[in-house]
Amino acid sequence: MTQPAVRSKSPIASHPWTSTVIAVLVIADIWFTLYVPLYASATPKVGDFPFFYFYLMIYMPVTGVVLWIVYLLQKRLRPPGGYQGAAAANAEHGEVTS
Amino acid sequence: MSHVNYVVFTIVLVLFLVVTLTGFAAARWRRSEDMLHLNEWGLGGRGFGTFIGWFLIGGDLYTAYTFVAVPSAVFLSGAVAGFFAVSYTIMVFPIALIFMPRLWSVCRKHSYVTPADFIKGRFGSRSLSLAMALTGILALLPYIALQLVGIQAVLTVMGVGTTSTNTFVKDLPLIIAFLVLAIFTAVSGLRAPTLIAFIKDTLIYAMIIVAVFYIPTRIGGWGNIFAAGEAHMKAINPKTAKPNGVFIPATGNSQLAFATLALGSACALFCYPHAITATLATKRRDVIKRNMALLPIYSVMLGFIALLGYMALADKTTAANVKGPGKGNAQLAVPYLFQHMFPSWFTGIAFAAIVIGALVPAAIMSIAAANLFTRNIFKEFFRPGASARLETRVSQWVSLVVKLGALLFAIELPKTFSINLQLLGGIWILQTFPTLVSGLFTRWFHRYALLCGWLGGMIFGTIAAYKVANPTTSHWAGSTDIEFGHTVYIGVSAILLNLAISVVLTLVFKAIKVPEGRDETAAGDYTSDLEEAPAPAPAGVGAIAD
Fold first, then answer.
1. With an 8 Å Cβ cutoff, are B259 and A90 in contact?
2. Residue B399, min C-alpha distance to chain A (Å)
3. Any A CB within 8 A of B469 CB
4. ipTM higher than 0.85?
5. For residue B293, how far is the Cα from the chain centroid?
6. Nearest-angstrom CA–CA distance, B311 and B215
7. Residue in chain B lying closest to A43 (CA)
8. Which pLDDT value is given to residue B415?
9. What is the mean pLDDT of chain B?
10. Which of A45, A94, B98, B506 shows the greatest Cβ crowding within 10 Å of its Cβ?
């Protein structure tokens, strides 16, 4: 990063598909627990768990997996040379802590 | 102290001593050259990686009050008032993933320590920043007090100090525990709760795994547990002539209440200054993103903790203990359940887990409140030229004062009062959400419009919460009320009002050209990251991070 790169398109604009998938995953993750009628029933029972309770319990590990995928996808949005702000941020931080 | 089980008492005492030593030793952990800086005392050097960050944020968000109050709410009224917490802790991570990495970046770039620092930099408004700081401190005080209520519940069931009528003598164990906490926090800063979080999480996980696999075998399996829950929720309460609670939210109104409680609480959680403090203590932007995916592991545990409420209903002795004549304190459901189900030595471990579980968040909350006071009130309005050294000293003392205030709260005021104030605290802190989150994405909103929106939301939320009544309580009876025929979480209706005011007044202020204030941040600041750990090089132990 010797030259301040010409400001290219934003990461979102240059990766439309990845960005869409990320948005869909995050929104779906919120929506499927926010929309209660979807799972507010006692049946079908899973083992001894009424469906309502089973659904919410199983949802948590699912959220973890979904958000990890989001994290991996977001890495692909990153400009190859790292963030431009990094060097400036480092300098400023050093100044403040000294 | 005649009913004290000495095995339980000894185990709790020994584990408490271990935690105390850890708390003081933490001052030497990852030590930097100049400890008298808020980045060190208040944010632990801003250098924690994914691994430590997970323990810190998890230990911070899941409080002793969670372990006591969520199951007690499930015990009392089932799904809508209690089990919504599971849906809430699912939603909180995708929501936080949207805005927390941006907050981290801009705060790191400009060395902001508190959310109010960011508001001041972004909107160039001291009044808006002061509003954020005051709301944060106001919401944190009852939250810290509730940690003490959690400890009190355990001490009560242990039979420690309940015989005397003198308040001071009665609560002496609690006072001692809290003084110890206050002192090691003042000395070690954020490093203390971070290190103790490892002990906390180990104990909590041991407790919950044993509880989940062992207790059902004692009380007839999960089928029996859910049957007891369902029977209790459907039974008619003689005082209200209505069912006790909701087992599965089948009606539109109960579903709306469930969803708005979950959504409102999820939006509120990362507006709490202590949650932001823990996040800002991490060393890279990626650490937060990874933790949003890893922290749901913690929530799995919360789901089982919530179900302890039904277990307490299914166990006749526990249910009788909690609801016995002259008792009626549902906060005791989990401690009684453990006491009846577990052998003494494991009861000791479980009780210690709850007590230590209270200390970690209480410490972080008092640090967060102290940072807000120092940076956004003391430095901003009284001593503009305060050095980093003075700031740290002031924060250390304020953290002590804040904790003493919370102690008085917990001892002097009736418990229901602290719980109501905590509900109110959630509604209040939610009113900072529009300013904080909109500020991270846009400068479209006018600073004074946001201030008016905040004020409107605060007033409406407080009055609405005050007016909630039920046949047994005349005021502060809950956190949902009826708006236009729908049962909604008050925090959500207040934030909608807040947003409406902000939008309308922004248009008005822009039309009449009220000055907008200087924005000291740049667009790139919100996505910037450090390529490697910042300057203060941690010694030795740093290797386990990442």
1. no
2. 22
3. no
4. no
5. 20
6. 8
7. B248
8. 65
9. 82
10. B506
